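Hi V.,

Quick status before I head out on leave. The structure for the redesign project is tokenized and pasted below; the design run finished overnight.
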């Protein structure tokens, strides 16, 4: 995907979100010193893109169980409605990710493993093992299965805030750096819903005494080799 076109698409969506949320100041737009190259005939998808597809799918797959638990154990209708919206978002994401994966030649599974990026690596959020998404939602669902009411709500919110910070970073990085036009468009457009869900989680957290500030150190000024 041409850099000018990708930048234009990203700029349009970012401009829309900035109107409603200052949290977009955290956009992960670090320069990439070794840009990904589109695959040539016979080549598989770049490792970073394959990692995005795998990790984004893993992040979404456990959300259905978290949504089911929230519908059963949530403390009130407002909480349950928020959790249902998040689960529906990830059902849609999972369907899209499966479609994108099936339409591409992926590297061998044993090669699609996270690697630590150097200090200036723009793909740090995707390649850093400490930022992987796999199993996070599933583990949260398992730990919350024995709780209910306010205790469930607090555990759910704390887990989802951690998960969504990483999902936002994952999608922002992919939107900024993939040479695949369809992947970039998918990441950019769906980031809108993911950011909306994270904002809803932050607002709900205040009801239960959980600190979830909407602003902080901008991600682009952090070290991509460290988990966030």
């Amino acid at each position: 995907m041409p850099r000018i076109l990708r930048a234009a698409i990203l700029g349009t969506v970012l401009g829309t979100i900035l109107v409603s949320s200052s949290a977009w100041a955290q956009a992960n737009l670090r320069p990439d010193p070794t840009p990904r190259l589109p695959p040539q005939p016979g080549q598989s998808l770049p490792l970073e893109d394959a990692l995005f597809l795998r990790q984004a799918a893993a992040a979404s797959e456990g959300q259905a169980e978290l949504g089911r638990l929230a519908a059963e154990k949530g403390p009130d209708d407002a909480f349950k409605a928020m959790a249902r919206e998040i689960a529906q978002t990830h059902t849609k994401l999972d369907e899209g990710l499966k479609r994108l994966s099936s339409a591409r030649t992926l590297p061998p599974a044993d090669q699609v493993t996270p690697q630590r990026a150097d200090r200036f690596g723009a793909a740090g959020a995707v390649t850093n093992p400490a930022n992987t998404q796999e199993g996070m939602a599933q583990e949260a669902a398992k730990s919350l299965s024995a709780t209910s009411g306010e205790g469930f709500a607090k555990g759910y919110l704390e887990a989802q805030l951690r998960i969504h910070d990483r999902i936002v970073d994952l999608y922002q990085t992919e939107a900024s750096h993939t040479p695949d036009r369809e992947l970039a468009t998918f990441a950019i457009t769906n980031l809108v819903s993911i950011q909306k869900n994270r904002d809803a989680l932050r607002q709900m957290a205040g009801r239960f005494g959980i600190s979830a500030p909407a602003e902080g150190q901008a991600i682009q000024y952090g070290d991509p080799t460290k988990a966030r």
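Above is the designed sequence. The two ends are 28 Å apart (CA to CA).

G. will cover questions while I'm gone.

Best,
W.
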